[in-house]
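Final paragraph of the annual report: two paired records, presented back to back.
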Amino acid sequence: MNELEIIVASLDEAGEILGSPASRGGLGFVVSIGDPEDRPPSGYRNVREKIRLAFYDSHDHVGPNEDDIDRLIEFARLIATRPGRVLAHCAAGISRSTAAAYIIYAVAYGEGREEEALERVFAQRPIASPNRRMVAIADRRLGRRGKLIEALKVRDTDGLA
């Protein structure tokens, strides 16, 4: 298996990365998440394989739904064993993008490695606060029986988040 590398960024950081040929070198995939009225970052068209998800950073009906997370999981399965870094961004690079990175790592690593997947996210983005609704939906859709959510709870109770 190729070592998966996900870069988590804010909208502005994503625009800087995507707009710079040097910064986007080796970048194979983009997960772009924004509010429904938002535009993708500048340079978005510079990467061929990408997914755009549009929902609010919310934990109710205006937040992500099962179709959104199914699309993310499908994309994660597509890229899990392919070469190329992944850029995952949302508005601030804290909640939706870190949840997306967590879900992608969880898909790539497989069941039983949820804590490792989560630690990869925090190692890359210490300010991470993954969107719990996204994680809960992914947990159900992947049949993880609460393991993705439990890893978040363990990290919170350990005082690490």
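The closing record of the year follows.
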Amino acid sequence: MNAIRCPQCKALNSNSAAECGQCKFSFEGLPPTAYVSVPPAEFEKLAADSPRDVSNAWYDIPKDNETGKKIYLWYRIYSGCLLFVSVIIICTGVYVFTGPPGALDTTPEGQTVGGVLYIILGIITAVLYSIAMFSPRKPWSWVFGVVILAIGIVTFCFLPSLVLLIFWSKPETRAYFGRKIKK
């Protein structure tokens, strides 16, 4: 059984619905005949024709729009640039760690610790920006983008991060990722 047919209006509803999306009939204490099995192709067609209540969901169906596409493209370019900076930080850490002792006007222990810190910081940021760059268009990805852009505001990328964060918060971008727009 993959659907509930409303006993009152005969609309097709999701198996997990608490009430009918069309007439708001409560599904508490339904008879077993209300639970129906519909072939997947027919279920998709009927479900598309039947209104569904998703007012309590924190997500929605992603909606293509030009603003969302552009902002997502610039966000991925931003993430790619910072991924490149992260690789440079890792290379710098390797150079500092493997360099000849005392060549960088520091003690050998300080040079080792500094190199390891650069490598660790570079790897962490490289992983974060890789996830940001290649994340799918899902509601969680929009939230991850907010976090990445907020982190960017406190770094040397203040202005690009701030501009992207402003556009990232627009309703068009939220809809592009399937985030519910508060009314």
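The longest helix spans residues 66-98. This concludes the annual technical report; the extension proposal builds directly on these records.
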